[in-house]
Predict the 3D structure of the following.
Amino acid sequence: MKKAFKIIIGVVILGIFGYTMFFLYQKSKTKPIVYETKSPFKANIIKKTVATGSIVPRKEIEIKPKVSGIIEEIYIKPGQHIKKGDLIAKVKIIPDMVNLNNAESRLNRAKISYEDSKVVYDRQKKLYDEGVIPLSEFQQVRLGNNNATEEMNSAESNLELIREGVVKKSGQSTNTLVRSTINGMVLDVPVEEGNQVIESNNFNSGTTIAFVADMGEMIFKGKVDETEVGKIRQGMKLLLSVGAIEKDKFEAELEYISPKGKEENGAIQFEIKAKVKLKDNLFIRSGYSANADIVLDHRDSVLSIEEGLVQFKGDSTFVEVEKGKQIYVKRFIKTGLSDGINIEVLNGLKRTDKIKTKS
């Protein structure tokens, strides 16, 4: 009995050992590589470059005051549509105290001179009317009175100009009222009531009270690398992707390519501008970031393959085409336009060919 039990255990051990050796042998055997294949197909090949930039109004201006002073009232707010001549703000003039004091002093002296000359004029006129003094003597008195009158009026106008910024009797509108110079939308009002503003002059650009722009005509302003600028030209079509508007794309036409490049981050960039075709149901805000696809060349419905299937040998281009089951031969082909993913095949392949993928 014990002997039979030992025999059974031995057989089991030998069986386990044999199975283990067989498993290890099968595992050590190299499995044959089975290559996948892909066939040529018809596709539209579009070669394009991308320009980054933003969408801005073609016409945007800064409204600045004609006089320096304090903002007394603001009549507009961002987003509001206004017309040329509409009131934007009112400026209260804070006159220079030295100039104001001099102007007041001049007016006081002019009034004293006028009152004195008026007394002399009235007395001499009475004598002239009675025939006591000759005309030549009266004319001198009358001239002096006219000069005193003119000096008083001039002093009054000068004081009014310093205080108010305009002479009322001149018939002109006051410079303290700031008005829009174009039709458009108010984009920004960077000042508040009570802020001090400075008029534009030779030494200062002046304080901007409001930014106003025509939002009905927008342009794309972007940058193109020097490696691509030679491939583009005016009149090319652009397709804009706006970051804030994911679902819609906008068409544009290239209008301007800068003749001079600027270095940015170690690369030379050229500015471009393109007219944007707006959509009635979508409002584009000034400054939206956008990417522009510029079509450099395209082929419609041409025989194509994935560019990753192409191999190179010197100046030659080839693919490996299946001749039999898992048997492949080199076939030299002539390629055309590439979009970086697919490439046009000019000759050397048919739609029914099966091309080995790279392992």
The longest strand covers residues 288-306. The helical segments are 2-28, 97-129, 135-164, 226-229. The chain has four helices and 22 strands.
